[in-house]
Amino acid sequence: MAIRRIEVLNGRFEPLRARVGAEWVMRVTVDARNVQQRALPVQARVGRQPMRAVVTSPLGTGFVGFLERMPRDGDRLYVGYAGAGEIETSVVYRAPGVA
Amino acid sequence: MTPDAMLDSIETAFPDSSSARLAFRGALASAQQQLPPDLRLVGGPGTTPYGGVQQDDVVVRVNPGEPVAPLVGRVTSQATWLRGGTWDAEASGPGFYATITPLNAAEAIAAPRARRILDARGRIPTNQIVLRRAVTPAMPPPAVVPPPAPASVAPPPIVAQPAPTRVPAEPYEPIIGGQPLVAPEPVRGEPFTLDDPFTLEEPFTLEEPFALEEVFSDVGSTDITEFRRIPYTAEWIKSDTRQFEEWSTRDQAWLMTALGADTVAIFEALGFTRIDPADPSKFRVGVKCCIHYPADPADSNKLAPGGARFPVVLIVHGNHTALRRVSAPTASSVTVTLGSGSTIEVEEIPSHLGYEYLQQELARQGIVSMSVSTNPANALNSFIRMRAETVLAGLDILRRMDGQASSRFHNRLDFQKVGLLGHSRGGDAVVKATLLNLARPVATRFGIKAVCSLAPTDQTGTARTADRLTLGGADLFYLVVYGTHDGDVSGIGGGKAFSGTGFRHYDRATCAKSMVFLEGIAHNRFNTNWNNLPDYCDPDEPHVAQTPPPPVDPRIRTAADHQALAREYIGGLFRFRLNGDVSVRGLFDGNLVNSIGAQALIQWAFGARRLVIDDFEDESTAGRDTLGGNAVAPPFATEVDFASAIVGTDPIDPHVPHQTKVLDAFARPGTWATRAYRAEVPTARKDFRDFVEFTFRLTRWFDVSTLAAFSGTSFPNFKVRILDGAGGVAEVDQTALDVAGLRAPARPYFHELFDANSGPSGEIINVTKVSLQTLVIPLSRFAGAALNNVQAVEFEFDLSLSGHVYVDSLMLIKP
Q1: Does residue A42 contact residue A51 with C-beta atoms inside 8 Å?
Q2: Chain B: residue whose CA lies nearest to A44
């Protein structure tokens, strides 16, 4: 299918009870459309923190990534392809207990 | 129709190949008494037969130059998709098989046997033709077993998205009896002629030793699938504030956490991963591959006779969708039960089978090739290392087969003549694999002699210098093939961006090397299974994502052109470096034009001897050239990192794909103490007589904002002087350049793409590249100076230009 603008539908932030892999503390699952498998890797960040080990869903429903440290309340998700443009999404992290 | 007339009509299909005509004529003559008189040609070599292959069709197969009798036989069964190699079917690889009763054979081989009458794409093999009676008795169309679905990608089920219209690059007509192709339906009882006899999709010749398609075959009847743990530790590739990493794949629990049980179930069902039987806490990665080899025409299960060891080439594709969901079971799909209890059907997209046209070319050259699947790496979104390890795993598999007495490859492979080809991320991976190979113990190390990066990414170019993948070595040749209209690895952001191109790989390499930058060449079209975008284009081509879509850029070449150039340049590389065929050397130093006349801008640095006069790289030796002599630049010139250069007040890096230092001369009228760059030659290097060519890389700044802006821009004039120790001076100017083949100076190639994720609704981005080109002056042009006593070389700039001129890589070459 043609490359089109990535559409982020939803994002879930899941703290990891046990550290997995390197030093990851949180898994971020992003439901999205138009995330393409191409030469340039998908890259994403939450606030200024880059997401690690981003894996696109094999069935094209979005991607998963990890964070090394807990994001700050209000940190927004940005998505794009490495070296190319980046889009600002509507997914924002809300810390527990923050209205 | 008389037999001779029939033969004459058949021969009109081969206007350019007398040997083909003779071969088929002779075959038909051998069965003349058994053939009906009203046969017509319905399919020539390499074509799709008119109406498919039907019962009672006559198949003619020839084997010129080989002690194998031709076959003339009648089709007596329906055509069925098989892989061949069973007890009742010949082993000729995947394709459509039907029982053929020979009409001209001796009793010993007169028994009917299933033979491969169409290849996997429904085309007649290159050594066969199909004939049919002009008046055919009424028959119901034969039911056929459909082939596996072609490896095209249907878009995932997305709501509210219009399904894109897919236009296949190559027509594919499976056997469905009675379907006319181009001619009208014949009137029963009357002879018919086809309006358009046959346009051969590929040139047909019987002179080549391995031209017969039948001798190209996969090993056995199934792809090789082997699971190996690909051990590596996480590594960090740092680039500005963004960091990309390879994962440790040692932990099955991590895999489950990262991907979830359903995704892992899909991966395991497709053979991408499986739990390590030796350690359930870990998982292994599947290694699937496809091998092509030059086969014995008498028995395609054997390698070509002679006992010689064949060079080996390993091919690895790049990142691409690894699998797709299908709505109903297919021949290649698997059923996966999800955690919810529901099931889905998924099938793998075999990217590794997208280079079979090239593998066949290599087999023609007497080279065994393996194309290895890195779909596990794609599924895991791996960058480089897993792919590089998979390359070495493929070579290890071949070496094991070479050591097995029961294998057809036993003692037939030469692991001191190994070549690697990587496409896209695979192009990065083969560089890494070469370096990993060097780190192996000698006993397990492969003799890698030639590496090709095809439209490669460069994912380490912005890392720390020590972490950048860099090829070197005295016995290695590195080729980069890259297109001006690559819409995936487009070089967006220029030479300082993370998403680099093959230019940076080329610049960093210190071994013998060449880079061919081809006009009109894109990214995906080299892989015949990457036909997953409308009009078979790359992701960021403007017409794809805009509404309404602008026309396809007419400068982008066809898929057939891409594959022809791949055969020529990549096949040529391995002929040159693995087979020692020097006749193709000119493809890599610009002396030869390619067979389709595609323009190219070529950089190169190889020969029996190379002497670098100055490459401007070593900051620690300011005021000295690479030879160690004094170097003096004119006041208007400075040594700069090309991608960091400035024109006026504007950085030019978005349009500079390089990773090299150059001499940046802002030539303009004025009073200057000197107008020339001077490199003094140490006494130990003063004898130039062994060399033949003086080469250097050169370009100027072009206004690439629009095509019109630079179309008429002139090339810089210059003078080069060789000064000897006795005061002799030999001076030439730009008219002394060798402009044969593709050596004439070339302007940039204009290219824009559409980045859908830039700005509020996407942006058109100009990715036109201002790139260096290797220019050549034969040393024979330098008269007036003693070449055995050279004291200095000078490069003088033409100040009437008034613009930036960039010079690099002053060098002497002995071919």
Answers
A1: no
A2: B242
Task: Encode B322-353 in three state secondary structure.
Answer: CEEEECCCCCCEEEEECCCCCEEEEEECCHHH
Of A39, A56, A59, Cβ closest to residue B318: A39
Total Cβ atoms within 10 A of residue B712:
7
**CA quadruple B27, B33, B37, B42: dihedral, nearest 10:** -30
- What phi and psi, each to the nearest 5 degrees, are found at residue A45? -145, 150
Closest CA to B316 of B427, B179, B238: B427
Residues A37, B153: C-beta atoms closer than 8 Å: no
pLDDT digits (tens, 9 = 90+) for B371-386: 999 998 898 878 888 8
H runs (alpha helix) in B119-201 = none
Q: Measured between CA atoms, how close is A61 to chain B, in angstroms?
A: 9
The two tokens of residue B785 are 């100076």
**Residue of chain B whose alpha carbon sits nearest to that of A27:** B258
Judge contact between B644 and B655, C-beta under 8 A.
Answer: no
Q: Average pLDDT over chain B, rounded to whole?
A: 80
Mention every residue, 6+ apart, whose C-beta is less than 8 A from residue B478: B450, B451, B452, B453, B471, B505, B506, B509, B511, B512, B513, B514
Residue where the block lists tokens 């009672």: B56
CB contact under 8 A, A55 and B759: no
Cβ–Cβ below 8 Å for A40 and B259: no
Is A37 close to B378, i.e. CB distance below 8 A?
A: yes
CA distance A48 to chain B (A): 9
Residue B600 scores a pLDDT above 80: yes
- Which of A66-80, B43-57, B269-283: highest mean pLDDT? A66-80
Q: Percentage of residues in chain B with pLDDT exceeding 70?
A: 74
Least confident of A23-32, B89-98, B399-408, B581-590: B89-98
This complex has an ipTM of: 0.92
Tokens of A52: 């690690």
Residue B812 is which amino acid?
L
The predicted pLDDT at position B776 comes to: 98
Question: What is the spatial distance between Cα B92 and Cα B84, in angstroms, rounded to a whole number?
Answer: 6
Does the predicted model carry a pTM greater than 0.90? Answer: no
Q: At what angle do helices B385-403 and B425-438 cross, to 10 degrees?
A: 60
Note the maximum CA span of chain A.
42
Q: Which of B46-50, B61-65, B203-207, B321-325 has the lowest mean pLDDT?
A: B203-207
**Range from A19-23, B205-209, B574-578, B809-813 carrying the lowest mean pLDDT:** B205-209
